[in-house]
Amino acid sequence: MSTREGGRRTRARQRRETRAQTKGSGESPDFTIITGLSGAGRSEAAKCLEDVGYFVVDNLPPALIGKMAELVATTGEPKRVAIVADARGGIFFPDLAQGLEELRTLQVPYRILYLEADDDTLVQRFEATRRRHPLATDDRMVEGIRKERRMMETLRGEADLIIDTTGLTPHELRDRVRDTFAAVPPEAGLQIALTSFGYKHGVPRDADLVLDVRFLPNPHWIEELRPLPGTEEPVRKYVIGQRAYGEFMRKLRSLLDFVVPGYVREGKSYLTVAIGCTGGRHRSVVVAEELSAYFEKQGHQVSLDHRDLARE
Are 8 and 158 in contact (CB under 8 A)? Predict the structure, then answer.
């Protein structure tokens, strides 16, 4: 195991222990650090968190995170704080590391939300707003984006939740953030996001686990089922009626029963599972729906998104 990986696991355990110590006390505030790539939606995520009751501080110098936590702990308000941080400052990473260490010392639970998108999407967004990328030199926007991506690589590895906003509208991003953060404290346990998708539309870049169900017979080739989505009962009955489906789900549940408790022990707060078929309208939808019911029965917080259901 590398030194970097060992450090990540140690910090994950520290966060888990802090959450366990503060669980049920009703005294410790909830801190969320919003960070990621410029143009990936940090401001939109911050607005959404403000809407669901967070006190949002935009671009607080990371070195002041500990002072902010002390103030909140002293006054008891606000209970939920979100801090937007970016990498434009040259001393960003040492100061952020210090700020997060102070949160751990104060036994304040925190999580890191990291937003990203692919290069083409970021370029399009900057061109649409006619803004200059903060790290671009000589108007070389792509180089600025790549420089920032390299700078943020380590922080991305520390994130509790990564959201890839490529292809997401602002409304869809708000829904994703709202589903994840609304009235859910960081000690609530593992939160699971399920996404069905079509391989022909691209694999979600923010998935922790990707399941390929294209081995199942495709309802697309059944004329009466082709126009129906996987949420309709005739499609569902066709998919779950396949012999391979039952065996696959039994083995998949066995795998999840083994790995999910391990994620919890390692301090993971969010798990994103993507289920893919060819078009994202039939098989993946049925499997995602069943996994949603499976995780909810186990007591996990679950959100479900059928990304490509409306696509042809």
Answer: yes
Sequence letter at residue 264: V
Instruction: Report the 10 Å Cβ neighbour count for 300.
Output: 17
Instruction: Quickly list H helices, the chain.
Output: 3-22, 42-51, 65-75, 92-105, 119-129, 141-151, 153-158, 170-181, 233-240, 243-265, 283-297
pTM as predicted: 0.66
pLDDT for the residue numbered 184? 57
Residue 228 and residue 301: Cα distance in Å, rounded? Answer: 28
Tokens for 219? 């309802």
Residue pair 267/180 in contact (Cβ under 8 Å)? The answer is no
Instruction: Go through the chain and tell me how many residues it has.
Output: 312
Using DSSP's 3-state secondary structure scheme, residue 98 falls into: helix
Backbone angles phi, psi at 158, to 5 degrees: -90, -10
* CATH architecture group of domain 3-188: 3-Layer(aba) Sandwich (3.40)
- Strand ranges across the sheet with 301-306: 209-212, 270-277, 191-198, 301-306
270-279 pLDDT per residue, tens = 899 999 999 9
Question: How do the domains of the chain map onto residue ranges?
Answer: 3-188, 194-306
Under 8 Å between Cβ of 161 and 49: no
pLDDT, mean over the chain: 84
- CA separation for the pair 78, 75 (Å, rounded): 8
Instruction: Choose among 163, 36, 181, 33: nearest CA to 108.
Output: 33
